[in-house]
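anyone seen this seq b4? input:
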Amino acid sequence: MHTDLSDLLQLLDLTELEPDLYQGEGRNIVGPRIFGGQVLGQALRAACHSVPGRTAHSLQSYFLRPGDAREAIIYRVERVRDGQTFSTRRVIAEQRGRPIFDLSASFTLPAEGPAHQCDAPIPEGPDGLLTEQELNRQYLEHEDISENFRNAMLRRKPLEMRPVVKRHPLRPEPAPPLRQVWMRAPETLPEDPILHQCILAYVSDHSLMGTAMLPHGLSFLTRDHQMASLDHALWFHRPVNINDWLFYQSDSPIATDGRGFNRGQIFNQRGELVASVAQEGLMRKM
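predicted toks r here
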């Protein structure tokens, strides 16, 4: 199923069932299992409803069970603590009465303090780069694959994604564990900082686990390996603006014991570090 920006905004518009209890739509984005970024963005949105006036600065989460994309998701928000500067929330996502996802998020107010950051490893800007859909269309033009699979590979995405390095989606070759992509909203979004954070949470899971697969010539389409995200952490360092180009670089310093570790940095075009990401995923031979 296609998921464009309007679809994503609909996914993030949760239904309040009662105070601190919400329902989110399921959606077949990458297959019968719920895309991790979807439940991540929805859970953060649920937590944000209980913290007016504050924005998230960090979240830690665990994927507990595969979610069914055909069913709605229930989000239970626990108000753990409200301090003068920080608020903590826990969110449990459930299907069929069983938890599938667990998120803890911390919210804060703007503050002054010492500031520094690492050098920004930003290559030339996105102008002239093809989008993922355009690249896939070129690669799949002469591939003998089913129409359903072709449509899935060419599906619309809520953000415009322009990879720096071209990679054939069906023929992965061993490569250094590094991914670089430019991304932005294809149309102007309202200046709502919470909305922009939730969208960034959604897209931060895009291809992140695939970074650890690169040195081994693997992909999510490799049939004799099991791949799944186990956890996801995200830190917001600066206000997020999805209307402008963001540069997302991820690398994988290690894969061992059936798990691949991935980390990411998201910069704006001025070279300012906006957010950092970390994730460990299952990556083992069946």
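The chain has a mean pLDDT of 92. The chain is about 20% helix and 35% strand. kinda curious what u guys think
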